[in-house]
Model the fold of this input.
Amino acid sequence: MSSCAHNGMEDRLDRLAEDLAQAFDESGCSVERSCGEVTLVVPVAKMSDIALRLRDDEQFAFEELIDVCGVDYSAYGQSEWQTDAAPNSGFGRGVTSLGELELMESNRFAAVYHLLSITHNTRVRLRVFVDTEQPIVASMVPVWPSADWFEREAFDLYGILFDGHPDLRRILTDYGFIGHPFRKDFPLIGQVEMRYDPNLKRVIYEPVSIDPRTLVPRVTRDDNRYLNEDGAMQEAGDA
Done:
C-alpha cells in the first residue's frame, strides 16, 4: 500500500472515530483507536438502538455484519506459565496488562461484532460486555440476518445468550454436550468422550480417559550469548 493510500485510510478511520464519539457519547459508549482499527464499546442495554443507528444512519451505513464472536477475559493479561524460564510473549497468551481494559468480575464475557460499510468503505468493531452470571445480550438477527449462525456459535462455545434469537441451539458440539468449550474454566481434555460400543450397537458416553496436558508449545533453545567462560549455560539468575 502506498503512503498516500495508507494516510487516506488513517484519516478516514480518524474521522470515523470522531463521528462515533460524538454520536454515541451520551449513550455511554467509548471509542478505542489503535492498530489501524476502530472499536466502539457499547453498553449491553443500548445494543439494539445503537446497532439500528449504525445500520440506518447515512453517516455510518454499516449495512453488513461480517462476524460475531465471544471472548472470555477471565485470564486476560496473565502469563501462560508460572515459571521464570518461560517467556511472557510469543506463544504465551498474557501479553497485555489486565489494567488496560479495567476489567471487573462482572464483565468477564464480551460479544464482539465486526461491521462493514460498503457505502463508505470502512469497518468498525463493536464490543459489548455482558454479565458474568447471566451473559445475555439482544440478538442482532433482526438488524443483520447474517448474525444467525454466528450467534449460535458464540452461544455454543462461550455460553453467551442472545435474547430474541429465532433458533438458539448448539451448532458445533453435540446436542448432549455439557459446558462451553471456549470458557477458560473448561478443561482442555473435555468432560466426556464417546465411542461406538459393538455389543450395545450404539454410541456411548464415558468419562474422559486421557491425562490433562498443556497444548501450548514451549520451546527452549541453547544460545551462545548465555554461555559462561567454561562453555556451560548460565543459570537464569546469573544472566
Summary: The first strand starts at residue 30 and ends at 34. The longest helix spans residues 3-24. The chain has three helices and nine strands.
